[in-house]
Specification:
- The structure holds 2 protein chains of 2 kinds.
- Chain A is mainly alpha-helical.
- Chain A is 78% helix and 2% strand.
- Chain A has a single domain, classed as Four Helix Bundle (Hemerythrin (Met), subunit A), CATH 1.20.120.80.
- Chain A has a two-stranded antiparallel sheet with strand order 1-2.
- In chain A, helix 3 runs antiparallel to helix 4.
- Chain A is elongated.
- Chain B folds into 2 domains: 65 residues; 37 residues.
- In chain B, helix 1 runs antiparallel to helix 2.
- The radius of gyration of chain B is 20 Å and the shape is flat.
- The chains are: A mainly alpha, B mainly alpha.
Chain lengths: 217, 105
């Protein structure tokens, strides 16, 4: 039967090998998976620093409208709310995808949940693109004011991260189809899931600071 | 062994579901507050800030599985150290640019 290589109960590093693999292989796979995930956490934290600096740039530019349009004219809160719903739902389905991978070891189920995640990610991106076009059509282009430069930089950096997450997911579909759920593909899916959950956390900052506080100011 | 497996799975699924419910509530509250104008402005600012902080904690705990158990100690220490660096850079930037703004304005 399926056996967790991590014997210590539920863990995000519970990469599963078939029981026919010798114990030493399972131990090795676990150590490699732990190292790979820890390395990925270091990358995520460096990304966090990039986003923090974009947030603080945005904060210092809060009143630099230069007579241009401000948050009231440019932001559509219902659109931001739908983007929040799409991204949060995708975070949840991404978690279900990792559960399907680690407990059911079913390639079809794993890919189905990741495909739903990808679809929700694309919904998010198309809503965001629509927001950007609406802003630009109202004169809110990045070169108009310091505040607009800072908001475009922050929101678009997050959007590009989501885009690269979607591309990563497509690449993983190809790998999973070619190699099946082998340990390497599994750790890559786990890293993708970490990346995706992390982007949802950055979005909490964006909708709270840029959209909600922006409209209140 | 199979029962253990099933229990672990259900436990993790419950974690994701709790995380989802809490995150939905913590997003809906500030959005509804601002869009429907339910509270005075000063209260809304506090609600947005506190809901966002709580939601970040919820995401780390239920989606990224960071808790105080020893198997996640390395990840937690890395995150806390990164937050220290972030606090220094964000705090320093706001301080310096705030001063510059006040003196030149």
């Amino acid at each position: 039967m399926a056996q967790s290589v991590q014997g210590k109960g539920p863990s995000h590093i519970g990469i599963r090998l078939s029981n026919s693999a010798p114990a030493s292989h399972r131990e090795e796979a676990r150590t490699q998976a732990e190292e790979a995930l820890f390395g990925f956490w270091i990358f995520l934290m460096s990304d966090l620093i990039i986003f923090s600096m974009l947030f603080v740039t945005y904060a210092t530019m809060g009143h630099s409208l230069a007579g241009g349009p401000g948050p009231h004219e440019l932001f559509d809160l219902s659109s931001a709310a739908w983007e929040t719903v799409a991204l949060l739902a995708s975070s949840f389905t991404c978690g279900l995808a990792t559960l399907a991978m680690r407990y059911d070891r079913s390639l079809a189920k794993t890919l189905l949940w990741f495909a739903i995640t990808l679809f929700l990610g694309l919904v998010f991106l198309s809503l965001e693109l629509h927001d950007f076009m609406t802003m630009a059509s109202k004169g809110g282009v990045p070169s108009r004011s310091g505040w607009l430069s800072a908001s475009w930089a922050l929101i678009a950096t997050h959007g590009l991260h989501v885009t690269s997450g979607c591309i990563w997911m497509l690449i993983m579909f190809v790998q999973a189809a070619k190699f099946g759920l082998d340990p390497l593909v599994q750790t890559r899916f786990m890293r993708l899931a970490l990346f995706w959950h992390f982007l949802d956390i950055i979005w909490i900052g964006i909708f709270s600071i840029v959209y909600l506080l922006g409209v209140l100011s | 062994m199979n029962a253990d497996h099933e229990m672990e799975r259900r436990q993790e699924l419950r974690g994701y579901s709790i995380g989802l419910v809490l995150a939905v509530l913590l997003s809906a509250l500030p959005f509804a507050g601002v869009m429907l104008g339910l509270f005075p402005r000063a209260a809304l600012i506090w609600i947005i800030a506190i809901a966002a902080l709580c939601q970040v904690v919820v995401h780390f705990r239920f989606f990224l599985h960071i808790d105080l158990s020893s198997s996640h100690r390395d990840d937690l220490q890395l995150i806390l150290f990164s937050l220290l660096i972030v606090a220094l850079m964000v705090g320093g930037t706001l301080w310096v640019l705030g001063n510059a703004h006040a003196m030149m304005g």
